[in-house]
Amino acid sequence: MMSQLNHRGLAELAKIYGGLFYLKMGQVHMVAVSTAEMAQQVLQAQDSVFSNRPATIAISYLTYDRADMAFAHYGPFWRQMRKICVTKVFSRKRDRSWASVREEIDSFVKNISVRVGSPVNIGEMLLGLTKNITYRAAFGSMSQEGQKEFLKIMQEFSKLFGAFNVADFVPWLGWINGQDFNTRLAKARGALDRFIDSIIDDHMEKKNKKNNKNNGEREVDDDDDMVDELMEFYGENGAKSSEPISITRDNIKALIMDVMFGGTETVASAIEWAIAELMKNWEELKKVQQELANVVGLDRRVEESDLDKLTYLKCVVKETLRLHPPIPLLLHETATDAVINGYKIPCKARVMINAWAIGRDGNAWAEPNEFKPSRFLENGAPDFRGSNFEFIPFGSGRRSCPGMQLGLYALELTVAHLCYTFNWEFPNGMKPNVAIPTHRLNNSTVYLN
Ligand code: HEM
């Protein structure tokens, strides 16, 4: 039954039970929100009650007891972490992250270029791309050799985050998953401790050297990575933070994991869906390529400054996020008892806002299951910045995505490069819904595997 409680299963239940319905799993109260009106209630009208996060036993343990931003409950600690991230770590002013995106996309395109004419596993390659981007943005060039080890740690974290643990629902049945699960949790966190502790030590050494050189004054370096930014707030074991807010090693480790988990699969999945939809809807791919030819021409590469002029490409990205939001269920938790539409919702209820179902709601969208980017050209078309509740791929309000700008940048720039540089066809004569006429730009064709 648990496996049916995903966005699709909940959307089916919403057809029977409506835009707001209640479930009880063991001792856990759950509420599913499946319409824009109900989402507006939860994310805006009563957001102070609905801004906590639920966390399983595994998540609490692996985030050092919610020492991060994504799983911290709403309150002063979360506000501090969010402030650090928004003003420093994810800020557009911190050019290093944006530079990592450009550099990694360049080498990604080169890697595909040598495969022209043969099938590529684009999904796998895209995940590699976004992992490289976030890894470099987080740790800079200092720690390239450890990347493989770090990805292994992330993989285990990801499995443990998603593992079903009966103790989350019926605590006294915890013995069923037993000691093995707890041992795995301890091993995974131990590996992360060893890995990031050594990175923090390296960064600390670098910072001390710089401070000594500049008589204690901080020198902002264009090459500073996210750990450098976070180290400015580090104040533990005798270390003195230069900022009014002070964070610990555990906070740094947990925040880095937020960035790695928030910024890799989300962006990779959105790019993969965009390419898949464009291949299935060849006319749309042609429109995007024509726009790229008009704006960029045929004799140079796509640049960041082109993005603002690529109106249709942006519509394609929006339509992709409407149909395939990378985080289809937004998970919130009530801080107190609440009442929505006359229904009482208990304190500590797990609230699942179904962004996927809302984006496909026939009452809000015409032909909701069709891929039609041009709908976003219409006057008054919804935007994803959070005030149109029928379109919330980045959430809305207090807990909305702080990495939206960076994520969109990587998403738009990669889709632009992939459409501009290559033509895409299915391998082995496989046909999409419609036949794909041969259309060539720059004479390169890559087959999607
Ligand atoms: C296409 C790309 C992305 C999408 C669609 C996306 C979507 C989302 C969504 C739906 C949420 C939850 C909102 C809610 O609960 O109401 C979220 C939260 C979050 N995202 Fe993103 N995200 C993307 C990229 C990124 C990137 C690149 C980063 C970091 C570099 C990031 C970091 C985070 C963090 C840390 C949170 C938790 C915020 C909090 O709880 O206060 N995301 N994102």
Automatic annotation (TrEMBL):
Keyword terms, alphabetized: Heme, Iron, Metal-binding, Monooxygenase, Oxidoreductase
Residues binding heme: 401
Main location per the UniProt record = membrane
> Where in the cell does this protein reside?
Membrane
The membrane topology term of the UniProt record is: Single-pass membrane protein
One CC-aspect GO term: membrane
Q: What cofactor is needed?
A: heme
TM ranges are none
**From the Swiss-Prot or TrEMBL record, what is one GO molecular function term?**
heme binding
The record's section on Gene3D superfamilies has:
Cytochrome P450
- Annotated family: Belongs to the cytochrome P450 family.
- The protein in question is named Ferulate 5-hydroxylase-1
Q: Organism classification, top ranks? A: Eukaryota, Viridiplantae, Streptophyta, Embryophyta, Tracheophyta
